[in-house]
Structures are given as C-alpha cells and as structure tokens.
Amino acid sequence: MTGLSIISFAAGLALGLLMIVSEFFTPSGGFFAGLGYVLGLMALGAGNLVSFILNGINWIVGYRPRWLRVSLLVQALPALLAAGWGVNELMNSLEAERSSAQYMAIVEAINRDDVAALKAAQQNCRNSCQTERPSRPSELLLLASRAGAQQAASHLIEQKATIPGTEQGVMRPTTDLRTCEGLYLPLLDALNVAVARNDVDMVRLLLPVSDRYSQSTALRTATTLDRVALVDLLLKAGASPAEPYSDDESRNTLLYAAAEGAALTVARQWFDAPLPPIAQVNIAAAQAALFQFMESTDGLPRARDFALLLSDHGADWNIPFRDEPSFLAEAIRSQRKDIALVLIEAGASLERLPQELRKEFAALEERDVIPLYYEDSGACIKP
Question: What average pLDDT does range 218-232 have in this prediction?
C-alpha cells in the first residue's frame, strides 16, 4: 500500500507539473488556452486522492507510523477538494443526460405531431432542460416547421411562440438547408423553412406570428426556389421586397433572388407582366447571381434557360466580371467548360477575349465536363 501510494502521488505530481509547465511553451495558449492548467490540476488532485485513500487504508489496518499521520493531515484538504470536484462533475454529467432525454422527448413528440405527448414532455422539461436547451415555444416552432408538424406548431403558437422569439434572452432561431441541386440556404427561420419545404399550410399558420423581416426573407426564399404560389401568398400578405437584404442595393430586388436559384417561372411571370418589385432592377447584378448559381450547383440546364431569358431582356454577357474582361473570361479562368458553353449560347463573345483566353478555351473544349455531385440524403430540399 505504501509503495502504491508513493507511486500514485509521484505520478500525479509529475504529470500535473508537466501539463502546467507546458502552458508556458505554447504560443498564445494554443487552440485550447488554459487546458494545460486544468488538466494539470486534475492530475495533481487525482494522484493525491488515490494516495490519500491508500494511506487511509494503511491507517485503518493498523500501520500508523508518524510520517503517515502527517501525510494524511497534509493530503486531507486537497483530497476532499478533488473528491468534491469529482462528485460535482458526476452530478453534472447525470443532469446533462437527464436534460438531453427530456429534450429528446420534446423533439420526438414534435416529429410525430403529437400534441398530448408534447405537452407532457414540456412539463417534464425542467432545470437545465429549460436553461441549456432550445426548449422555449419560439425555439421549438422551428422544429415543428422543419417536421411539417402543424398541430404542434398550433400548440406552440397558443403558447405565444413568435418569429423571431420575443421571450427574454431568445435569439432568432435558425437552421441551414441545402437544395438537392446543392444550393445552400443559410439562417432560415421557421417561416423560411416552411417556404423552403413548400408547405403552404404551415406558411399560412406562421405568417400571423412572423415579423416583417421574416416575411421579407421568406419572400426572397420563395422567389429563389421558384415557389410561385408562395410568392403570390406572401405578396398578398404584405411581405415587402424592400426590406434591406444587403448593403449593395443592386441585390435588394426579387429578380436578384430569382437569379440566385435560376427561378424561371417566377422571373418569366414578372417579365411578362411586371410587378412593382421588379420596376427597378439591376440586370448585371442578376447575371452575377446566376453565374454564382451555375458554379456552385447542379442546376445548369435550368440556368441556361434563365441566362437566355436575361439576354432577351437586355443582359450583356460581355461586361467585366470579377476583375476579368467578361463573364466568359471568368468561366474559362475557372476551367468551367459547361458554364462557358451556356454563356456563349446566351450571347457572350469569344472573339472579344484576348488571344490567350481563346487558346485556353480551345484547350478546354477538348476536355469532358465533370458534373458536380451532391449526395441526396433524403433531407435536401427539392427546388
């Protein structure tokens, strides 16, 4: 016992000091600043606690030299502190598991659209479940929208859930989605998620509890995803495209939003019968948005038709773009033969490019087009 006590104390001391000293040789504290100090103190405490327990066993069985008494007195307070810290961490771990189980009961009830189970789960969600989990009605409304759980959403609205949440300390709950073509949709609130899922009934349910900003961004989302019926619904409900989306005013139009998703139906409708939101548009900005859509998604066939639509309404594909002489030059520079062919069909001139770019395009024509691929996990949004 004495030997094991000495070994455990020495090992804890050596390891603890090594970790603490290592902090002095890590520039700016490293990626986890202060971690060496914490681990070092844990090692010291653990080594001392094990040594104290072994020395206590020695004392109990009758081995009681004077040095052991002194050692026990010196080790007692650090050992108690280490034991108390360990018990506290164990209790916190058990509480975290309990909180997680309580929260998952809420999530499962929402996914099943089971209001009775949701009420029971909310009542059972206490302490850390309420303070450390997104369990307030306005936060849970996002889960209901994503699950298409209309009854659960109605129940949460009865509990004063709004978009954004108005409870004290609640930030706007959002999530990110991606279309099956690969278009990234960031920071969507509950109303925007319902629009992305093309859930008209959920949109009607959430509109009255959504603020102006949410309605404006939902209108942009509906436009980008070519949700014609939802665009009309949101416009009739008073959603305004005038809500600032960007410091760049050229991007604050619904034509720009349509180009971000190559939304042909919406754009054609506006060009055929212009609506107020498209009265002042920036075609060049829409061209830039469409180019970004083409280079980051699998939606090239539809983008081709959108590019031709823009050309029919005055788009000039030979203007400078991204510090290159034209959109076509940028496509060639980025080795995107597929985009280059679309631009040429839409009116981009190869002859206006410098000779070296024309040669580069000729070499590019000999290569096969490598399509982008986005894994459809079943959770992506159909455009």
Answer: 94
